[in-house]
Amino acid sequence: MKKIIVPIDFSIYSEYALEAAATMAKQNNGEVLAIHMLELSEAVLTKDGFEQNQEAIFYLKLAEKKFKEFLQKDYLQGVRVTPIVKHFKVFSEISDVAEDHSADLIIMGSHGSSGISEIFVGSNTEKVVRHSNIPVLVLKDDIKIEGFKKVLFATDFSSESVEVYKKALAKFEALNVEVNLLYVNTPSRFLTSKEMREKVANFLTEAEGNTNRMANTSFVSNYSVEAGILNQASEINADLIAVATHGRKGIAHFLEGSISEDVANHAVLPVMTFKI
């Protein structure tokens, strides 16, 4: 993990993410790309030529000054930090920034969301998870990355998840954490015990050429995948939850939702998402 993106909105949550990124960068001789998204109002953007340019420059310089002051942290000493100020919405274009800079991880602080705001608005974190082509680590608190010892990785063990599973294992190896796998059996997609074990065995054989990780795989039943993940993470005292996401957008997302977004939104533990 050589290049880590951290979106900064000057909140305590983005500071949690920045400190975690600094720790990870030190461990891997990496670089932190600290990004502040300057969302200029329509009033500014619709002004004529010269006046618009002058006002936009004013707000940009103001943001750069505040950003520079925010980055004066003791824990950033010895860390390569590249500050980037952009004037677009964080959740949609951040994937372009990641691609332009060949970043391999996004770390975000989040307070989550719930109820009616979650249904109709959602959080910026949810939207980054939905759009990002690289893994996203979501933190809700001041978590010490070096304290990660045990990860619970939930997957549906389908063939299309094999490649993202391999990428996830590489990330976990870099973090030096114990990997525990999870299959959640739900009423809507019910499998017998034999069917579950066969499904996981076939998946592991395709992904790793053996079934050694069966010993570290849990099979749980619950009314929803999200509840199964959160309960099992508590049961094994996991330090980190990891899930894969299809990155559904538009009407498909509204109708089907996203397990990874829901888990990232509601979990107290850090959550790392991987896009299939």
Automatic annotation (TrEMBL):
Query: Which InterPro entries does the protein's record reference?
Result: Rossmann-like_a/b/a_fold (IPR014729), Universal_stress_UspA (IPR006015), UspA (IPR006016)
Where the record annotates domain UspA, the positions are 1-140, 148-274
Origin: domain of life: Bacteria
Q: Which protein family is it in?
A: Belongs to the universal stress protein A family.
What is this protein's name? Universal stress protein
Origin species, per record, is Neotamlana laminarinivorans
